[in-house]
Each structure stands twice: as C-alpha cells, then as structure tokens.
Design a protein that fits this description.
single chain; 86 residues; alpha+beta; two-stranded antiparallel sheet; three-stranded antiparallel β-sheet; 4 helices
C-alpha cells in the first residue's frame, strides 16, 4: 500500500495521507493551502487568478508531480510504500 507524505518547506513533514485527494483535502482542511500563490515571475497572486474559480477541482485533477511543480518551494508530496510483514 502506498501513502502520501506531506512536507511543508519550513515545517518539514506535516502529515500523511491515504492518497493524493486526501492529501489535498488535508492541506485545505488544516488551513495549509495558501490563498496567495507565487506565480513564478516574482509576484504573489490569488490562487483563483492563477487557476480560476474552480481551482480546487483543478488541483484535484492533477497528479503528485503536477502538484509538486505548482507548489514548488512551499509543499512537496511524496509517495511512500507502507510495509507489513503479514
């Protein structure tokens, strides 16, 4: 079974989630997802301006790599296997 390790740049590991969708909802429900996001050109802009009004649906449609690219320097998601000897 794989899980998602959730890291925040300044705090390190902040959570573990069952899957990608759960990781995104964890960040949202724990008030980690920012309302303003770095645009890659030296400015911080509202997430709605960069992704549109349906920004959450757009993020949920991504995979881990797309998420990590968009939130580079803020969050990092990593897929890790959970092992069981049984």
């Amino acid at each position: 079974m794989d899980v998602i390790i959730i890291d925040e740049e300044n705090h390190g590991m902040i959570g573990v989630a069952y899957d990608y969708e759960s990781a995104v909802h964890y960040l949202l429900n724990k008030n980690w997802l920012p309302t303003d996001v770095y645009d890659g050109h030296g400015e911080w802009k509202p997430i709605e301006e960069l992704l549109g009004d349906e920004w959450l649906d757009k993020i949920l449609s991504w995979d881990v790599d797309n998420f990590n690219e968009f939130f580079e320097g803020c969050f990092h998601l990593q897929i890790e296997a959970v092992y069981d000897i049984h």
